From TrEMBL:
Single GO term (MF): cytoskeletal protein binding
Stretches assigned to the FERM domain: 17-298
Organism expressing this protein natively: Nothoprocta ornata
Source organism, top-level taxon: Eukaryota
Function of the molecule: May be involved in regulation of cell migration. May regulate cell-matrix interactions via its interaction with ITGB5 and modifying ITGB5 cytoplasmic tail interactions such as with FERMT2 and TLN1. May regulate ROCK1 kinase activity possibly involved in regulation of actin stress fiber formation.
Gene3D superfamilies: 1.20.80.10, Phosphatidylinositol 3-kinase Catalytic Subunit, Chain A, domain 1, Pleckstrin-homology domain (PH domain)/Phosphotyrosine-binding domain (PTB)
Gene: Frmd5
CDD domains for the chain: FERM_B-lobe (cd14473), FERM_C_FRMD3_FRMD5 (cd13192), FERM_F1_FRMD3 (cd17102)
Protein name: FERM domain-containing protein 5
Pfam families reported in the protein's UniProt record: FA (PF08736), FERM_C (PF09380), FERM_M (PF00373), FERM_N (PF09379)
SMART domains named among the record's database cross-references: B41 (SM00295), FA (SM01195), FERM_C (SM01196)
GO cellular component, one term: cytoskeleton
Region (Disordered): 367-387, 437-465
Segments crossing the lipid bilayer: 479-501
Gene Ontology process terms (BP): actomyosin structure organization
């Protein structure tokens, strides 16, 4: 009895997995899930912890062992989606940026979107002019440390914060000037709201760039925004296509196709090449979900989409959530009291700003990394040294007068490992600091020393081993689907032939076929002898069974 109980308890423990989800303020939420728990269960646990009702804008992201990012699918098992070994590490992020973030119903939702856009600004995904960058940073400063106080905020206080991938003294002075003269008296909520309103007007608001190459081999970044499909090359937005102009998206291997129908029935096809097939599939799925969310009127209009023209080939995917219009209508019906938000009071900035508003459900941010990162003395000296070298070559400005390149930012969809190393080296030479998110996600995808010491499992084998297994499996499945379809078509044709030759149905369609010379020749020269041969064989088998 005791051994049976112990074996049962051990089996139940094996079916439980520890999950850690990094929140937007860099705090962590840990929980235990069952083996068959769906993604929706984990997401609901997280939203309950955050006291979040307007949750359709958010999602859970994770990185597989190949450094490819994915959005957790809520209709599938969490364990089956995670290719890494437990415990699982994921990130809570904004998946669908609100079309108008200032119009969100609850302040806690606006606060979480504010944290996400602040991350985008810090990691170089939100591109803007220097003047806009200074204003956005000043709003962040006002929200975190409150009004300027000469007694608490010494000269150069804004330089202790890291708002962007790179800084310049001129930009820091501009940020401090706006904070001192234009934002006095604004509460944290008001500053965050103004920040959202300003960010919404930028061309790269909501951009989650996927690195690709165009047909000429030029580097490009593809992204999906609340308003349409965007292509960025260098400092310029070379394509912007509204969602109602996108007719189809598909992919084959590393190649992504976007079908566009514009005015005067002008149809074009944009072709781009992703670093890997997995990255291309991720790009395609993101495009399908974003188009469904922003374009459709009702979730009942969502259809299963295939990546190929042939239904037995390629991937099939269906968006499973609500669409933007339904989310807005649902938000308007929220009647609860707004979640309590605490204010910790303004403090002087070093070593970290203490004025942070903490929604119920979020950990206290006093000791967390939510606040705008503060540059250490050694790092500041390194930046100063780089700045001195840049002064001599007239390249001090961190953000150009027009735009700065997304190539200096952390890419949400990682490129191949060797390309990522080159990117990091280029960023180091350009003077861009390595980001917190980059370090953490590298740690999340790096095996521990104990794991590295163990013999490699099936997933750890090289290109000559199990790495080719997924491709072989896909080929086998494709062949099996083709055979199944062929057999099905032959079966349907056989049924139609039997109906034509043996049934008494006298419809006009059947009558016309039976009266054709070809059918009469087939019937008397081939079908009737074949039928007599089958009948003879069946009688022989029956007589043999009777005799025995």
């Amino acid at each position: 009895m005791l051994s049976r109980w112990m074996s049962g308890s051990s089996r139940s423990l094996e079916r439980e997995y520890n999950c850690t989800v990094r929140l937007l303020d860099d705090s962590e939420y840990s929980c235990t899930i069952q083996r068959d728990a769906k993604g929706q269960y984990l997401f609901d646990l997280l939203c309950h912890h955050l006291n979040l009702l307007e949750k359709d804008y958010f999602g859970i992201r994770f990185v597989d062992p190949d450094k490819q990012r994915h959005w957790l699918e809520f209709t599938k098992s969490v364990v089956k989606q995670m290719r890494a070994q437990p415990p699982f590490t994921m990130c809570f992020r904004v998946k669908f940026y609100p079309t108008d973030p200032a119009a969100l119903k609850e302040e806690i939702t606006r606060y979480l979107v504010f944290l996400q856009i602040k991350r985008d600004l810090y990691h170089g995904r939100l591109l803007c002019k220097t003047s806009d960058a200074a204003l956005l940073a000043a709003y962040i400063l006002q929200a975190e440390i409150g009004d300027y106080d000469p007694g608490k905020h010494p000269e150069g206080y804004s330089s202790k914060f890291q708002f962007f991938p790179k800084h310049s003294e001129k930009l820091e002075r501009k940020i401090a000037e706006i904070h001192k003269t234009e934002l006095s008296g604004q509460t944290p909520a008001t500053s965050e709201l103004n920040f959202l309103r300003k960010a919404q007007t930028l061309e790269t608001y909501g951009v989650d760039p996927h690195p690709c190459k165009d047909v000429s081999g030029n580097a490009a970044f593809l992204a999906f925004t609340p308003f349409g499909f965007v292509v960025l090359q260098g400092n310029k937005r070379v394509h912007f296509i509204k969602w109602n102009e996108v007719t189809k998206m598909k992919f084959e291997g590393k190649t992504f196709y976007l079908y566009v129908s514009q005015k005067e029935e002008k149809k074009i096809v944009l072709t781009y090449f992703a670093p890997t097939p997995e990255a291309c599939k991720h790009l395609w799925k993101c495009g399908i979900e974003n188009q469904a969310f922003y374009k459709l009127e009702k979730s009942s209009q969502v259809r299963t989409v295939s990546s190929s023209n042939l239904f037995f080939k390629g991937s099939r995917f269906r968006y499973s959530g609500r669409v933007a219009k339904e989310v807005m209508e649902s938000s308007a019906k929220i009647k609860r009291e707004p979640p309590e938000i605490h204010s910790a009071g303004a403090e002087c900035c070093p070593p970290r700003p203490l004025s942070r508003r903490v929604p119920a459900g979020l950990e206290s941010l006093r000791d967390s990394a939510h606040s705008t990162p503060v540059r250490s003395a050694s790092h500041g000296e390194a930046l100063a040294a780089r700045g001195a070298r840049a002064d001599s070559s007239e390249r001090v400005a961190v953000i150009a007068d027009e735009n700065y390149s997304p190539a200096d930012s952390v890419l949400p969809t990682p490129v191949a490992e060797h390309s990522l190393e080159l990117l990091l080296l280029a960023r180091h030479l350009n003077g861009a600091p390595c980001s917190i998110e980059e370090e953490k996600e590298a740690e999340a995808s790096t095996p521990t020393a104990a794991e590295a010491a163990e013999p490699p499992g099936p997933r750890a084998l090289g290109p000559g081993g199990a790495a080719q297994a997924p491709q072989v499996n896909k080929f086998v499945l494709s062949v099996l689907r083709l055979l199944l379809v062929t057999v099905g078509l032959l079966f349907v044709l056989l049924l139609l032939l039997i109906v034509l030759t043996e049934s008494d149905l006298d419809t006009a369609f059947f009558r016309d076929i039976r009266q054709t010379p070809e059918f009469e020749q087939f019937h008397y020269q081939y079908f009737c002898p074949l039928r007599r041969w089958f009948a003879c064989k069946i009688r022989a088998v029956v007589s043999l069974l009777i005799d025995t």
